[in-house]
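Incident log, structure service

09:12 report received: a user says their structure output differs between two submissions of the same chain.
09:20 pulled the input from the user's history:
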Amino acid sequence: MTAIKRLGDVDRQASNEFEGEIREFIRRDVSTRSKLPVEPNASSQVEADNLNTLLERVSGVTVAEIDRLISELQTIRSLLLKEGERVRREITGYAGLSQSAVATMKVINDTLTQLRPSAMSLPSTKD
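09:34 re-ran on a clean worker, output below:
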């Protein structure tokens, strides 16, 4: 149990040292940043302007591409809606045609059923 207690102490000590190093790093970073001049010099302003111009060009091209894609997708959506409506109309037409064909077959079947008994009752003519 003493060994486990010692391992825990070592863990805590390492953790405290690591946290101390992080704190020291942050202090150095903050002190370095506070020593920087408040106003940027002319060369950094030119670099910032160049960067802004570059970002505007890149984002402009990207936005134009996205707008073009949105337009294409809207065109495709419209086409798909029209085609869907056309397919629905055709399926409705085929369903009506199929029902008509079934009704016609029933009429033909009923007519043939009525003719069959009378055809059986006709005398056969043998010579």
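09:41 both user submissions now match this output. Likely a transient worker issue. Closing.
09:42 reviewer note: Helices lie at 2-34, 42-121. The radius of gyration is 45 Å.
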